[in-house]
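Justification of resources, computational component.

The compute hours requested in this renewal are based largely on the per-chain cost of generating structure records like the one below. Each record pairs the submitted sequence with a full structure-token output. That output is archived, and it is also reused by downstream analysis tasks.
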Amino acid sequence: MKRLALVPVISAAMIALMGTAAYASQYVAYEGPAFTGRSVVIDRCGPSDIPFHGSYKWYGDGQSGRMYNQPGTHGVMHFELASNRYAEQRTPVGWQSIFIVC
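The structure output for this chain reads:
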């Protein structure tokens, strides 16, 4: 009997957890200046190379973004995008990689 009573409790807990929205900061890299051309959204935790450098938008939603001038987040961090702010640049950027801190 105890086993049968536990199944609905576990199911309800899983539904409650899955129902909550998970938000993450996003770095949107654009191929061209002024947010034109192809784009890619980077929102996973850890290191990511940035494929486009024409312009960017940053949506800080809880995680900060550490920016590097070399691929693979090698070298010294150049700049940190805030975890709770929006940022953008309409002109080309030199950042080659980002580390989203989660």
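The chain has one helix and eight strands. The beta strands are 26-32, 36-42, 46-49, 55-59, 64-68, 77-81, 86-89, 97-101.
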